[in-house]
Amino acid sequence: MNYIISFIFVAISVFAINKTKIFRIKSLPKVWINIAFGAKLFAAIAMLTIYSRSESIKKDADIFRYFNDSKVIFSALQNGEPLNYLKLITGIDSNNKDLDKYYIQINNFEHKESINTTSNKFFIRYLAFLSIFTLGTYGGIVVITTFLSFTGLWWIFLFFYSKLRNLKWVIFAIIFFTPSILYWTSGVLKEGLLIFALSLILNCGNYALQGKHPIKRSIIILLSFLVIFSIKPFILFILIPPILAYLWLHFRPTQRTLIPYFMMGFIAFSFASESGKYMEHSVFDLLLEKQLQITDLAISENSSSLISPIAFQANSLSIAANSPIAVINTLLRPMPWEVNNIFSFFSTIENMSILALIILIIIFPRKDVDDPSLVWFSFVFSISLFVVIGLATPVLGALSRYRVPGLIFFLLGLVQLLDIERIKGIISKK
Fold first, then answer.
1. Which residue, 231, 252, 287, sits at the end of a domain?
2. Which tens digit of pLDDT belongs to each residue from 198-217?
3. From 79, 260, 282, 402, which residue has the greatest number of CB atoms within 10 Å?
4. What are the residues facing 306 on neighbouring strands?
């Protein structure tokens, strides 16, 4: 049954890609869109294979443990208790004693959530909802989630392509074939849903600013904000300042590009610094707490990719002083001498490729940037995310995954600064 359901949803996905207007673009052959989707399915299968090597690995893998909890919620429907299913999936009347028999089987519902946590509840409920359509099969959920992630990446491609038409193939290659982006946005992981929500904000926002159904699209944007907040609240906190700066420049295009991004960043950092006055714990306290939690977990599981945690204090001066090393850890580690398995080997190759790209930009900088505001947006969002996860996550394997939303925008920001035509000219002469 699992294979049959999986095949049905693969067929539906391929039909949607080839027959709907969403994936139609004159300047890009349809075959490449199908190749990109095929690569994502392959990555999802590879992830499933890797994390199914043994029962101990399978037990602790995120791609399985959230699904296992969702099966408990879906079992309420199978047991003829649709009311209990609705209570579990919506959170309404969640303290009802009739639900205790389900709660005792669910292992990943948080008791305390904050801006530095991720919401397992939302993702588990999302999987339990999909189980209605997949009849509770895992393969069907893998295909649907992978397709949503692929759709999100496609919409991000369309957004950047609309601004940078001369970089079409470069943008396409970065979004769909960067190894860590391809891998970590496939399968049953939160990153795929995050990418989908981010893409809705970009595309609906872009069309709304053009006056195309602004009210309808504004509602979709607000719902997307809610999804991001429900999955990883700190990403929403990081995302809002560059969005406000981008809007500022849209409505006041004569303003110097640096000023809005500097002002919004300064306000956000000031709020974080003083957040202890308005919240039970300041944002920086929560960041330090998250680092301790991840470190303790890595030690208890004897993680081979644990590195020395960044020793920072919960104040603005310490955060600012340690931000550069946080960005370096997130973007460039593991280094070649830190390779200890096949995963870190591929991560190192990718990291060295990013470093090579940065060096190329220094040698061949582009004099005129097509959209300076888009460059600033990409870097402010991505580097802010790198700082937060770099400070909070002293585990290289986790960094490779958590950085993915920021990595997309960082790479797309970099290529806008590279004089590709000059490089082509040198290559053609040689």
1. 231
2. 999 999 999 999 888 899 99
3. 402
4. 395
